[in-house]
Amino acid sequence: MNKTAGIHHISAIVGHPQQNVDFYAGVLGLRLVKKTVNFDDPSTYHLYFGNDGAKPGTLITFFPWVGATHGKIGGGQVGMTAYAIPVGALPYWEKRLEKFSIKYEKVNRFGETYLQFEDYHGLKLELVEREEGQLNNWTFGEVEPEVAIKGFAGAVLYSLDPDSTIKTLVEIMGLEKVAEEDEFIRLESYDDIGNRVDVVQTKVAPGRMGVGTVHHIAWRAKDKAEHLEWQDELYTKGYGVTEVKDRNYFDAIYFKEFGDILFEIATDGPGFTRDETYETVGEELKLPETYEYSRDQIEKLLIPIEVKQLD
User: Fold this and answer.
1) Does some domain include residue 1?
2) Which CDD domains match (predicted)?
3) Which of 83, 138, 157, 159 has its CA at 20 to 30 Å from residue 172's CA atom?
């Protein structure tokens, strides 16, 4: 049985792209590691933020749709995206959120303290201290490695059928149930980042896709061979899995698990330095070869964005 190392990336829908960049780079201090377009809609950006090396397990990606309707967070979605920060960094982040007038609250889950807040477009986020995971060696503004976000701590999943969602995570993705508390069941994979998800045990009313909601959560496959094995297993077990899609920086397959959450399985490679160097990732607009002939037209459609320090 194949076992995923954990979360590869999480993709969400937001509003204005400059506000998106200001929040995730300017406030949270993440690195813009790829500026490209939605391969299915090249008139829209696809922006990737992560750690210094754009490692799977640190990547959050966005489709900025200016003027789009706000969604409703609910069943069939990732309800909360959790980030891991170094032990001792929580007070720093409280002060930083206050500095930018971002409201937050503290909650406890499985013996850990989380800071919960929203980005500028209503996406729900949380920060939690974790020993695991290497430091993010990216410094931006006042966010330095000793306090910087390492990558994903995990996610909270809202399902229309929690038992089915948990069954998929255990029997298909290879996660293990490690704890149960109040309304949550915690499942864990084997890597040290992006390795835990908490599933709400009760059915959650259906959400509605739109600005401020997660579009899908992607799980890691170590290589193309393992990726194809998962595709075959999903097909055999009755999941409506897609063909393999070349996303330039990874291969992807998609399916809806039976709790109605859109899952992706993405290969770890070839990675984000295939068309840029480590030093220059995220600086230029990168297009797949099929769209290069339309570069001038595409660039005219996209709103200019700038990564800028807000401190």
Assistant:
1) no
2) PcpA_N_like
3) 83
Q: If pLDDT is split at 50, 70 and 90, which confidence band does 164 have?
A: very high
Does the residue 311 lie in any domain? no
DSSP letters of 185-231? EEEE-SSSSS-EEEEESS---B-B-SBTEEEEEEEEESSHHHHHHHH
Instruction: Output the six-digit token pair for 23.
Output: 């929040």
pLDDT of residue 1: 86
| Residue 37 near residue 248 (C-beta atoms within 8 A) | no
Number of domains comprising the chain: 1
Q: Which two tokens stand for residue 50?
A: 């992560």
End-to-end CA distance of the chain: 48
Which one, of 212, 15, 22, 201, lies nearest residue 117 by Cα?
212
Cα 216 to Cα 239: distance, rounded to the nearest angstrom: 16
Contact residues for 120 (Cβ-Cβ < 8 A; gap 6+): 14, 15, 19, 20, 22, 23
Largest CA distance in the chain: 55
Q: How far is CA 12 from the centre of its chain?
A: 7
Q: Residue 77 maps to which CATH number?
A: 3.10.180.10
* Domain containing residue 123: 7-301
For residue 71, pLDDT over 90 is answered with yes
286 occurs within a structural domain: yes
Is the pLDDT reported for residue 126 higher than 90? yes
Mean per-residue pLDDT of the chain: 97
Distance CA(87)–CA(177), nearest Å, equals: 24
* pLDDT surpassing 90 at residue 145: yes
Identify whether the C-beta of residue 169 lies closer than 8 Å to the C-beta of residue 162: no
Q: What is the pLDDT of residue 229?
A: 98
